[in-house]
Amino acid sequence: MGSIRKISFSLLTGAMLLTGVGQAQQDAKAKQDIKTLEMVRLATQTELEASANDHSHWEYKDSYRSPDGEKLMRVVETGKGALKKVVERDGLSLTPEELKQEDARLESFVNNPAQQAKQHRDNVQDDRRAESMLRMLPEAFVWKAAGEDAKTMTLAFTPDPKFTPPTMESRVFAAMAGEIVVDKAQHRIVTIKGKLTDDVKFGFGFFGRMKQGGTFEVVRRQLAPGIWQIAESHVHIDGKALLFKSIGEQEDDVKSEFRRVPAEETLEQAATKLRGEPASLSAQQQHYGRAGGPVAAFFGR
Predict the structure, then answer these.
(1) CB within 10 Å: which end of the chain, N or C, has fewer?
(2) Which DSSP category does 243 fall into?
(3) Region 182-209: what's the mean pLDDT?
(4) What local confidence, expressed as pLDDT, does residue 300 receive?
(5) What are the start-end ranges of the H helices in the chain?
C-alpha cells in the first residue's frame, strides 16, 4: 500500500483547531449524483483491495523538486525496505566523493535494523493515513459526471457541507474541489487533482490558515496487469501558522523507468546494484511507460 501515502499534511498536527473552510462551502447546495457516487465507491473499493493484494517491488528513477532544490534519485524497493541513492542535485551529477558518501549511507541502512524498523513504522503510519483519506472520497464530497471517452470517466467533486472531517489532514482534504479520472474497464483511479476552495483557518485564523487556491495532482500508470504505481505527484499549498511562520507543501515528484524487482531480492543485493549508479541501472532499464511530468504517491501500490 506504499504508494497511496503521497498526499499528507503532517505539518498541520499539534494544537491547531480548524474552525471552518469558508462560507462558500457552508452555503454549497450541490446535488449528489447517485450513479456517479456509486462509481466512486466501486473505484475506492477496487483500489483498497488491489493495494492489500499487491506485494510487488520496483526500481525506478525519481526526480524530486522542493523549495530546497532538485535531486535525482535511483530507488530500489525490497521486502525489507526501500533504498534511495541521490545521483544528481540541481541538475549536476554528484562528485565521486559525494557518491561514496551516498553509498556509505546506504550501507549504514542495510546494516542498521533500527533504521529499517523506523522506515517500516513510518510507512505503516503513512499507509493508514492515506487509506483513511481514500475512504473519504465517497463520503466527503458531492459528485457528478464531468465527461468520458472510450477508456475513462471523469468525475468531478466539490466539498459536501454535511460532512464532518475527523482529523486535521482530512479537514484540509475535504476543503478541496476537483476531479478524478477512472479507468472504466478496471475501475482504477488514473488521476486525481484538487484545489482548496476557500482559506482553511486554524483557531479562528489566529494560529494560521491554508490559502485558497492551493492545489494537488496525482497521476498513475499501469506497470503490469492489475498493478498501478504513482508516476507523478504535485502538491502546492501555501499558508501561515503560529501567526508568522510560513507553512505549506511545495513538491513535484516524477517517477519513471520502472523495472520490477524480484520478490527475493535483499537489501544487500539492492545496495550492490545501487553502488554502480549512476550507470548500472540506466544500462539495464526496462521501460514500462515513462512518467510524463509528477502521488506519491496516493492510491494503490
Answers:
(1) N
(2) T
(3) 80
(4) 38
(5) 23-26, 34-53, 96-110, 113-140, 168-173, 267-275, 280-284
